[in-house]
Design a protein that fits this description.
This protein is an alpha/beta fold and 155 residues long. Helices cover 37% and strands 25% of the residues. The chain contains seven helices and ten strands. It has helices spanning 34-42, 58-65, 77-88, 103-108, 123-128, 136-144, 146-153; strands at residues 2-5, 9-12, 15-19, 25-26, 29-30, 46-51, 69-71, 93-97, 111-115, 131-133. A hairpin with a 3-residue loop joins strand 1 (2-5) and strand 2 (9-12). Helix 1 (34-42) runs parallel beside helix 6 and helix 6 (136-144) crosses helix 7 (146-153).
């Protein structure tokens, strides 16, 4: 996904890192509309889902979404998520999250999107993101329609 933002520069996004619980799932269930959008995005960008599997639903959801869900260990979750972004490449990664343990990955990525969903949003996550949207489908639609990002981020 490539686009230019006046006053900010060019973006070439190759990787999407998504938090699972609270971002694309609520109470262990994928939010309506997410699976279809991820299928469409999957032909444009490499999709990674990361979770500490708080709800114990990662195994089931992995098949439902047809993506690899990367499980991280308890504790230092923020560092593990940021390390994934670093491994994929900070210049080419967009991250989407909502929690306090998503702050580092939102800051590390070329583009950080914070979603306000049914679980709420950590104040720190909101402050660390480049863009804040009311829900995950809005965030995914920004990537499917990058001109919306240009309109929001231009200076």
């Amino acid at each position: 996904i490539e686009f230019d933002v006046p006053g900010r520069g060019s973006y070439r996004l190759e990787h999407l890192v998504l938090d699972l619980n609270g971002t694309i799932a609520l109470d262990g269930e994928i939010i309506d509309g997410v699976a279809g959008r991820l299928r469409r995005l999957g032909v444009l960008i490499e999709v990674s889902v990361v979770t500490a599997d708080t709800c114990g639903s990662a195994g089931r959801l992995e098949g439902e979404l047809n993506v690899v869900i990367q499980r991280i260990g308890p504790g230092v979750e923020a560092m593990q998520k940021a390390a994934l972004v670093q491994h994929l490449g900070v210049e080419t990664t967009v991250a989407i999250g909502n929690g306090g343990n998503d702050v580092a990955m939102l800051e590390e990525s070329a583009l950080g999107i914070c979603v306000l969903g049914g679980e709420g949003v950590a104040r720190e996550a909101m402050a660390s993101a480049d863009v804040v949207v009311p829900g995950i489908n809005d965030a995914l639609d920004l990537l499917l329609n990058p001109n919306r990002l240009v309109a929001t981020l231009r200076r």
